[in-house]
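Pasting as-is:
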Amino acid sequence: MELVEKSTKWVIRILILLLLCMLLYALVEFLFLAGRAMLLRQEAFSFSATPIDRDKLYFNELQGFIAAILLLTILIELIASLIEYLKLGSTNYVKVINEIALIATIRHLLALDFEHINPLVLVGLAALILVLGLFYFMATKTIHVGINKSSENP
């Protein structure tokens, strides 16, 4: 049993290392793309009489940047949950998976093109966010109630 436990911890350490490499690479790429977009996308500051080309606006790329930031947040949450597992030997995976699902759903919602989407998809996403939010609230409330009860009994 001890061999399985040690093997699991080494696999988790390797996963953390790989996720950290992915996170650093994604962060460098994000910073590079954001800097390049700010330097090259200056359509709004052109005061010529020609109409503004909406596809060249920085604002159009901002939606993708927000989705990228949320993807980085998902990576950070995964790394934090794996580190917590190494420290404590166990973690509340239901809460972690719910957090990641909520972030991923909101990330997907921000990446949608609202002009061309079926309204029922938006209703479904709203219902999904509501259920995940309520589930997260109930999971964190249960954890806090359990902590308060265990601190009352010496």
